[in-house]
């Protein structure tokens, strides 16, 4: 499984639709200062579900939409499509190619798509669990990232290994199950109160 291409439309400095195709192996993005190299990485980070606009070096989530230049009007929509080669079936969907898309409108509304079918952010997070891709994953390591791995506490480092080893998927499911059990306990307690009252 690898990221085969990304399409960026109206995201930050990319007003027009841009498609970047990646070969297997190493790709370097080069260009003068301020030409948008980091915006390419931000677009990937955003499409896999980044919710913090600060991590995207933005003043707000809406601010990631192309906000115009002296010659061009601002746009009302930003969209990023990530096209993954899935011949290895590492992503648990039975398709050779999987497109994950995220859209945001100036109204602030966000939409997510899996192979062009609208879905929830949660579906995208579930798709990437165990792959190292995702908000908590290590597929994207920024300039300060290497330093933070080196200076992490033993506990934080264990969390990183758990994510990489695929343990965190089960931890997340376990936490969800515990939350549900807690809710059931509350319901039972409420029911017992009602039974006592009726007695
Ligand atoms: P450097 O080499 O200095 O790190 P870079 O090539 O990584 O630069 P980026 O930081 O990716 O450049 O891009 C910065 C450019 O993106 C700036 O010119 C900035 O004005 C532009 N930009 C950021 N957000 C938007 C937006 N919402 N609309 C239009 N342009 C934007």
Automatic annotation (TrEMBL):
Binding site for ATP: 32-39
Coiled-coil spans in chain: 174-199
Signal sequence annotation: none
Location in or out of the cell: Cytoplasm
Domain of life: Bacteria
Domain-related comment: Contains large globular domains required for ATP hydrolysis at each terminus and a third globular domain forming a flexible hinge near the middle of the molecule. These domains are separated by coiled-coil structures.
Family that this chain belongs to: Belongs to the SMC family.
Protein's job: Required for chromosome condensation and partitioning.
Quaternary organization: Homodimer.
Protein name: Chromosome partition protein Smc
Gene transcribed to yield this protein: smc
């Amino acid at each position: 499984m690898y990221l085969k291409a990304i399409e960026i439309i109206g995201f930050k400095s990319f007003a027009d639709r841009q498609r970047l195709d990646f070969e297997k192996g190493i790709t370097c993005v080069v260009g003068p200062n301020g030409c948008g190299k980091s915006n390419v990485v931000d677009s990937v980070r955003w499409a896999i579900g980044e919710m913090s606009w600060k991590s995207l070096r933005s003043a707000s989530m809406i601010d990631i939409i192309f906000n115009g230049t002296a010659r061009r009007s601002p746009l009302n929509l930003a969209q990023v499509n990530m096209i993954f080669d899935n011949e290895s079936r590492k992503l648990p969907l039975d398709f050779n190619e999987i497109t994950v898309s995220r859209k945001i409108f100036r109204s602030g509304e966000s939409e997510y798509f899996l192979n062009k079918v609208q879905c929830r952010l949660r579906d995208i997070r579930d798709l990437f669990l165990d792959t190292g891709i995702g908000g908590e994953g290590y597929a994207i390591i920024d300039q300060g990232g290497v330093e933070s791995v080196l200076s992490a506490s033993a506990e934080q480092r264990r969390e990183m290994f758990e994510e990489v080893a695929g343990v965190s998927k089960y931890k997340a499911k376990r936490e969800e199950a515990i939350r549900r059990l807690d809710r059931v306990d509350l319901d039972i307690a409420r029911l017992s109160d009602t039974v006592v009252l009726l007695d």
